[in-house]
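Why do we care about 3D structure at all? Because function follows from shape, and shape follows, mostly, from sequence. That is the central idea of this module. The next example makes it concrete: a single protein chain, its amino acid sequence, and then its structure expressed as tokens.
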Amino acid sequence: MALPRVTFTDPEVGSVGLTEHAAREQGLRARTGTVRVPSSARGWIHKAGNDGLIKLAEDADRGILIGATSAGPAGGEVLYGLAVAIQMDIPVDRLRHMMFAYPTFHRAVEDALADLGPRH
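And the structure:
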């Protein structure tokens, strides 16, 4: 189940699905991809207060997203599309072909997907 959770601190911290640790405890072979928000176009535009990250967890055997964590400006908002992807078992390879609005915080998801690397 893709149950999103958000803590409205500054920066916001949210997650959906499984963490890498929880996935491994369930016997899944988890791979992760991470991007720092300041390295994204929107993070650069935002300037001060842009600290944060987006971390994705993939079930390496099935090639689907199983969890995501987002910390930073609009950290909770970034989770929407990731929650849908997790709930619907959308393959990571399909997510890599999505068009992300530019420049938005959620566009950094594209870089986190790239950081996952190719499926082995």
